C-alpha cells in the first residue's frame, strides 16, 4: 500500500518531534518543515531515535513562497500546523512578529491548501491560552475567548480562520484546543522544564537557587506524547471539528515545584508572600527558589482547567500520564542528561 504523506510544520519542536515519531510508527512518510536553525542539533529527534527516518525541508511560516513550494513538491494527505512563536512571555516583547507567524502563518497555509490541494486534511495547533481568564471553572470547546497576550490573540485569529475555511470552502480543517502539555523534550524557557532542570542542577550542586515569576498561576498539565495521538485522531474522523485535549486537573506552579522536589528527595518549606516568597531546603536551610519580578507578565492567565469529554466521547482519547508521573519523567531525564 502507498504510504500516506504528512507535513509537520514546526516538526523540530516538542510536539512536532513526538508527532513525527507517532506517524512514523503508523508508517507515514513524514516531512518536517522548519527553519534550518531550529534543527541545528536535532536533539529531540536524536532522543527519539527518528532523525534518519524523516525528510527535512527548509521553510518559514512568514514566507508564503516557501509554503507554496512545499505543496508543489509533495502531495500531502495530512498537514499539521505546529509551527509558531509559542512562548507567551516573548509575545509581549515581539508582538508584531508573533502575529505574523502565529496568526498569519496559519492563514498562509490555508490559502495555499485552498489553491493547490483542497482535499488535504489540516490540523491547527490552537491553545487554551485563547480562553484566558474564564468566568467558568472548567473550560470546553464553547468557552468564551478572552485572550490575555499577543500570542493568545494571534492563536484566536488562526483558530477562527481555520473554522472560516472549513465553513467557507468545505475544507477538512480541525483545531485542537490543547491545554499545556510538557515532557522531557519541552523547551527550557517554559516553566515546567525550567523547574525540573533547575532543581536537578541544585540537587547536583551545579547551581544554588532558581528564580521564578508567578507561583500562583494554575495550569492543566498533561504529557505531550499523549496529546499528539489526539491530534492524529482528529484527522481520522468523518467530519472535521474542534476538540479540547486536557487532563481535567489543575495545579499551581508552586505545586509543580513540590512534585519535582519530592522526586528529587529535597525537603522544602515555603516562607513569605508575594515577591518575598522563598523556598528553603529544610536540610541545609539554604534558599533554593526566589521570585524575580522580571518573570511576571504584563497580563496573566490565572487558572486553566480543561474539559476533554468531547474528545473522550468522539475520539476515544484520554490522557494517560498525569502530573505526578509527568514531573517524575522530566526530573529523571534531566538528572540523566546532567550527569552525562
Ligand atoms: P515549540 O516546541 O516551541 O515548537 C514550535 C516550533 O515552531 C519550533 O520548532 C520553532 O522553531 C518553530 N517556528 C517558530 N517560528 C517559525 C517560523 N517562522 N517558521 C517555521 N517554524 C517556526 O512548541 P510546542 O510546545 O511543540 O507546540 C506546538 C504548537 O502547539 C505551537 O503552535 C504551540 O503554540 C501550540 N500549543 C502548544 C501547547 C503546549 O503546551 N506545548 C499548548 C497549546 C498549543 P524555533 O525553536 O527555532 O523557534
Ligand atoms: O510554561 P509557561 O511559559 O506556559 P504558558 O504561558 O502557559 O504557555 C504554554 O502553554 C500554552 C497552552 O495553554 C501554549 F499555548 C503555549 O504555547 C505554551 O506552550 O508558563 C506557565 C505559567 C505562567 O502563568 C507563567 O507566568 O507559569 C508562570 N511562570 C512562573 N514563573 C513562569 C515562570 N513561566 C515561565 N516561562 N518562567 C518562569 O520563570
CATH architecture of the largest domain: 3-Layer(aba) Sandwich
The strands making up the biggest β-sheet line up spatially as 3-2-1-4-5-6-11
User: What is the CATH H-level superfamily of the largest domain?
Assistant: NAD(P)-binding Rossmann-like Domain
* Mean pLDDT across residues: 97
CATH class of the largest domain: Alpha Beta
Question: Can you tag this structure with a few keywords?
Answer:
four-stranded mixed sheet, binds ligand G4F, binds NADP nicotinamide-adenine-dinucleotide phosphate, UDP-galactose 4-epimerase, domain 1, 40% helix, alpha/beta, Rossmann fold
What can you see in these coordinates?
The chain folds into 2 domains: 5-183 and 222-249 and 302-320, Rossmann fold (3-Layer(aba) Sandwich); 191-217 and 252-301 and 331-339, UDP-galactose 4-epimerase, domain 1 (Alpha-Beta Complex). The protein has 11 helices and 15 strands. It has helices at residues 14-25, 43-48, 64-73, 88-93, 95-116, 150-169, 191-203, 224-235, 253-263, 309-315, 323-339; strands at residues 5-9, 29-34, 55-58, 78-81, 121-127, 172-178, 181-182, 210-212, 218-219, 222-223, 243-245, 251-252, 268-271, 278-281, 287-291. α1 packs across α8 (224-235), α3 (64-73) packs parallel to α5 and α5 (95-116) runs parallel beside α6 (150-169). The radius of gyration is 20 Å and the shape is globular. The N and C termini lie far apart (43 Å). It binds NADP nicotinamide-adenine-dinucleotide phosphate (NAP) and ligand G4F.
Amino acid at each position: 500500500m502507498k504510504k500516506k504523506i504528512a507535513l509537520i510544520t514546526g516538526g523540530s519542536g516538542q510536539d512536532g518531534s513526538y508527532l513525527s515519531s507517532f506517524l512514523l510508527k503508523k508508517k507515514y512518510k513524514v516531512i518536517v518543515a522548519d527553519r534550518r536553525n531550529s534543527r541545528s542539533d536535532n536533539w529531540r529527534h536524536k532522543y527519539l531515535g527518528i532523525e534518519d527516518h524523516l525528510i527535512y525541508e527548509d521553510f518559514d511560516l512568514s514566507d508564503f513562497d516557501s509554503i507554496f513550494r512545499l505543496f508543489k513538491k509533495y502531495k500531502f494527505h495530512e498537514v499539521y500546523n505546529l509551527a509558531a512563536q509559542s512562548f507567551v512571555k516573548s509575545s509581549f516583547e515581539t508582538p508584531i512578529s508573533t502575529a505574523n507567524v502565529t496568526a498569519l502563518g496559519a492563514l498562509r497555509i490555508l490559502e495555499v491548501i485552498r489553491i493547490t490541494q483542497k482535499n488535504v486534511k489540516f490540523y491547527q495547533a490552537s491553545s487554551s491560552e485563547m480562553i484566558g481568564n474564564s468566568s467558568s471553572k472548567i473550560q470546553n470547546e464553547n468557552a468564551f475567548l478572552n485572550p490575555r497576550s499577543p500570542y493568545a490573540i494571534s492563536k484566536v485569529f488562526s483558530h477562527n480562520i481555520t473554522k472560516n475555511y472549513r465553513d467557507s470552502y468545505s475544507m477538512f480543517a480541525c483545531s485542537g484546543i490543547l491545554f499545556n502539555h510538557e515532557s522531557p523534550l519541552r523547551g527550557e524557557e517554559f516553566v515546567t522544564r525550567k523547574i525540573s532542570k533547575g532543581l536537578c542542577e541544585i540537587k547536583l550542586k551545579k547551581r544554588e537557587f532558581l528564580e521564578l515569576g508567578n507561583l500562583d498561576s494554575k495550569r492543566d498539565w498533561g504529557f505531550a506524547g499523549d496529546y499528539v495521538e489526539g491530534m492524529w485522531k482528529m484527522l481520522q474522523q468523518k467530519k472535521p471539528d474542534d476538540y479540547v485535549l486536557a487532563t481535567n486537573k489543575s495545579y499551581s506552579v508552586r505545586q509543580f515545584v513540590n512534585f519535582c522536589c519530592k522526586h528529587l528527595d529535597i525537603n522544602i518549606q515555603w516562607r513569605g508572600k508575594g515577591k518575598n516568597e522563598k523556598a528553603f531546603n529544610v536540610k541545609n536551610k539554604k534558599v533554593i527558589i526566589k521570585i524575580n519580578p522580571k518573570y511576571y507578565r504584563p497580563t496573566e492567565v490565572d487558572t486553566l482547567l480543561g474539559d476533554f469529554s468531547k474528545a473522550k466521547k468522539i475520539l476515544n482519547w484520554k490522557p494517560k500520564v498525569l502530573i505526578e508521573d509527568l514531573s517524575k519523567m522530566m526530573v529523571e531525564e534531566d538528572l540523566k542528561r546532567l550527569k552525562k
